[in-house]
Design a protein that fits this description.
InterPro entries: ADH-like_N, ADH_Zn_typ-1, ER, GroES-like_sf, NAD(P)-bd_dom_sf, Zinc-ADH_QOR/CCCR. By secondary structure, the chain is an alpha/beta fold. The protein folds into two domains: 188 residues, Medium-chain alcohol dehydrogenases, catalytic domain (Quinone Oxidoreductase, Chain A, domain 1); 142 residues, NAD(P)-binding Rossmann-like Domain (Rossmann fold), CATH 3.40.50.720. 30% of the residues lie in helices and 24% in strands. The strands form three sheets. Strands 3, 4, 5, 6, 7, 14 and 15 form a seven-stranded mixed sheet that branches. A six-stranded parallel sheet has the order 10-9-8-11-12-13, sandwiched between helices. Strand 8, helix 5 and strand 9 form a beta-alpha-beta unit. The structure holds NADP nicotinamide-adenine-dinucleotide phosphate. The site of NADP nicotinamide-adenine-dinucleotide phosphate has 33 residues, from helix 1, helix 3 and helix 5.
Amino acid sequence: MMKAIGFTQHLPITDGHSLEDIELPKPAPTGHDLLVNVQAVSVNPVDTGTRGAGHRQLAQPKVLGWDAVGTVDAVGDQVTLFQPGDRVFYAGSYKRSGSDAEYQLVDERIVGHAPQKLTDAQAAAVPLTSLTAWEALFEKLHIPLDDRQTNQRHTILIINGAGGVGSMATQLADWAGIHVIATASQPESIEWVKNHHAEIVLNHRQPLPAQLHAAGYKNVDYILNLSHLDEHWAEIAEMIRPDGWVAAITENRRGIDLQKLTRKRATFAWEWMFSKSWYGYDLASQGAILNRIAGLLDAGTLQDTLTKTLSPLNAANLRQAHALVESGHMIGKVVVAGPWA
Ligand SMILES: NC(=O)c1ccc[n+]([C@@H]2O[C@H](COP(=O)([O-])OP(=O)(O)OC[C@H]3O[C@@H](n4cnc5c(N)ncnc54)[C@H](OP(=O)(O)O)[C@@H]3O)[C@@H](O)[C@H]2O)c1
């Protein structure tokens, strides 16, 4: 048996039963799966959203968690990329049981070697947000990775620069050579965004186009929306340049009017970090991205984004981490680190 944290009822995080300490059978790896002994996990809005959405009583406990660092304990018979003892980090698949467990199965192809110079807590903060930011910038906005000369002529606006994804996206866009404008609304988040390579910071609680114009920009080449797409859509359409590119990672509650982009011939794309593992294609690209991110962190090119660590790994601390993410005002990332208690 192994320790885990899960729930059987969708309850508010203030309820002690919203996440509970449980015991589950320890799984065994087959095929391309690694069995990972999880040492630290991070919490993302996908955790709080999945926990909070739904009314039914579950027959089996649901284990959340899509950000982990740990050590490979055993491998399936088709595994070629890792061996027992390797320190790994990954986000995992939305279809499978999550990382809030002492042991977790994960497909080796969506796993990276953990950054050597980062602590477990620092490394656990990285996978989901860096995969999302990387795929959005380089796969969906099609920013050319190895063409700094072109990128230096371009500007990106990142809406929500201080959250988990924004903290990585600002750094990665700057690394690619693009001028970065990001949004934040509080003194601490404004400071954080500047420290993560935004040249200009706009306040997303005030109209954005007027602030963009006041900063000397008529429009921008790229917009990456990381919060409240409905709320920002009209402004996005106004601020993007003709033939520009827009990507979003947040679902919209109301319909968005794509016609607002028609005259500008601007391109709109969704990013969903789980698409590849959900539909089972291009899996190895996520392992490759994580290995590249680990190299950039170890080289000091990227800074880790950890701002809060809770320990030990138990339901009480995970509930605290969920409450912080649910506040909607996170700066960087919160992690719950082992030992398991
Ligand atoms: N599609 C995907 O693959 C994917 C992956 C990861 C996340 N997501 C989604 O992307 C969103 C961001 O994720 P995250 O982990 O970065 O979230 P997060 O860390 O919880 O974001 C917190 C930040 O959001 C900012 N914010 C709050 N209201 C805002 C608004 N109206 N406009 C702009 N910014 C606002 C806050 O800034 P202030 O406090 O300064 O206002 C805060 O710093 C979430 O909705 C999440 O579900 C999607």
